[in-house]
Specification:
Chain lengths: 346, 346
């Protein structure tokens, strides 16, 4: 298996990505994996020299010199001008069938646009969805879309439900995940016409375990395994949750510093806070697949560190080892039954 | 000043509402306030007898016997069949100019529908917006709409910005609040056409302090005082945040119970957790005005306790003491300049 890595992407560039590979190799058997590294050869070599050869992994370097896609670059600009950059070449490697998956922590819009243009989407899919995993009170929940598809027809929402099911199979190891549609109330009369149409289809489908409308509280309640929503609401939910977490952590930190008692108290509870951070830290849930492409493309957080990047590698490897793309194609053809059923009823 | 109260509304009914009045009276000067209590007279009298006359407040009881709007009732049903209920009569009292504000913890959809039908909306407003206050790292943020207007044209978003400004004047005591439009990125090219149009208008307006697009993280970051969004995204954000808070609190509680060390640690930090709860507890930020009505109508959380209801009373009193409705009318006429400007440019 070959994993193409945009070494230069993200706020920390090679520091995070190379550390991430080391970390992944330390915790996993890498005997069947070859890392295709795209970036500045000097920087990559120097980083590997720094870290030493304490852990074993195989790799090849594709020197892209100082050519990178900048974080501020517009996707349309990147589409025309990014040939030769670490991101473009890494995505091309997968698109050309030379690697099995690609990972980048770089500019999300540009990476999405390049993945779409170079790899292409599965038939019936207009634009891939961004999928991520959230911790909940009993386990984990998958949510999609998180920002690629701002406005969603019922057909797109139905596709997301089926695609989410294929992701849950690999990442949550669930064969019959419970699927909910995000709405502003659980009553059937609530929401937009797209939601109503998607509800009507999913309710009748024998291919999904649809539980109905769910609300924002259910992202972390554990009442559902997959939450389907349009990219606007999904992104707002994701970022509202990040903000809340940041707010609470800051509030508690200030509090712990406020007296000798609370400093001692913090010391005694430290382990709990550590485990909270481990569980909800976006880095520990890093690696958001772009689902609906013909190959595996994984987006890692822009501010990802080595731990985060190792998690993204693990997502890429698990998807590449499974029959993920085949499953997605099958799922999409089931979702497409919507249109054929509709034609029949006309 | 007269405040009409739907005593029977909410999960706890009279237990919470009457306790809320006592609590409010304990902490505030009630000499100028008369509470008009709508509900079952026997229950109200018995609850007041239980609590004693330790605190002073003036009130009158309007007996509505056992007639209530149920939590499960559809708004359309309530519109036709709720005459004689505690909610209907309380809203009517304000609509008829006999009270200055109304508060209910009852069925949100029914209360919104009755408020709209009986009180009516300010000219130019189609449907009121639900406004709430959120704590942020430096103070408080107001967000609207939280669920009444699922789909929003640019005109509505612009109205929300102006209405939010009038609310911030009273509830946050800010004369020139920073206003942001909720989007999935801060770049100008992001988002829907409604957002783009609202951006173009607000950017040029001399009547608002518009800072541009903001993201979900900014609800709690303190970078902005008012967040304007459609009711769907606002509701998703609100509930995602509630869910995250619940998740973190549950996680920490389980952790604190896990060992003798952490139990002691919790004891030493207890004050900090208490103050976190006080700050972010929805009850402490209870009382969501329906803005855009001709009179003041305040929605209290369905599961509100006495503390929460007292907060909702305080919101009602502060709005009723200010020139809130007049300010909103002025603001709406400024927002309407959008349409006249547009006509001019045609």
């Amino acid at each position: 298996m070959k994993i193409a890595i945009d070494v230069m992407g993200g706020d920390l560039g090679a520091v995070a990505t190379i550390s991430g590979i080391y970390r992944y190799a330390l915790e996993n058997d890498c005997s069947g994996i070859f890392f295709e590294l795209f970036g500045n050869e000097k920087i990559i070599t120097s980083r590997i020299t720094d870290l030493g050869r304490s852990t074993a992994f195989s790799y090849g370097i594709h020197d892209t010199a100082d050519n990178v896609v900048l974080g501020s670059e517009k996707p349309t600009h990147a589409l025309k001008n990014s040939r030769g950059t670490s991101m473009f070449e890494a995505v091309s490697h997968v698109a050309n069938g030379k690697s099995d998956a690609v990972i980048s922590s770089g500019n999300t819009g540009a990476y999405m646009a390049l993945s779409k243009m170079l790899i292409g989407t599965i038939e019936g899919i207009d634009r891939p969805a961004i999928v991520s995993v959230f911790p909940n009170l009993n386990g984990k929940t998958i949510m999609l879309d998180l920002g690629a598809n701002t406005d969603c027809s019922s057909t797109k929402l139905i596709q997301f439900a089926f695609m989410g099911q294929a992701v849950a199979k690999v990442l949550l190891r669930l064969n019959n995940p419970r699927i909910g549609l995000l709405n502003i109330g659980t009553e059937r009369s609530k929401g937009t016409s797209s939601l109503e149409e998607a509800y009507n289809f999913l309710e009748k489908s024998n291919n999904v375990n649809f539980i109905g409308f769910v609300e924002g509280t259910d992202i972390t309640s554990g009442a559902v395994d997959i939450i389907v929503t349009d990219g606007f609401s999904g992104n707002v939910a994701l970022k509202s949750m990040e903000g809340t977490l940041r707010y609470i952590v800051n509030f508690l930190k200030d509090g712990f510093r406020s007296s000798a008692f609370s400093k001692v108290g913090y010391f005694l509870c430290k382990k709990i806070f550590g485990s909270l951070t481990n569980t909800i830290d976006p880095m520990r849930n890093n690696g958001a697949p772009f689902v609906g492409l013909k190959k595996i493309s994984i987006k890692s957080h822009g501010n990802s560190d080595g731990i985060g990047f190792a998690t993204a590698i693990s997502v890429a490897v698990r998807l590449a080892r499974s029959e993920f793309i085949k499953n997605i194609e099958e799922m999409i053809s089931k979702a497409d039954e919507k249109d054929s059923n509709e034609s029949k009823s006309c």
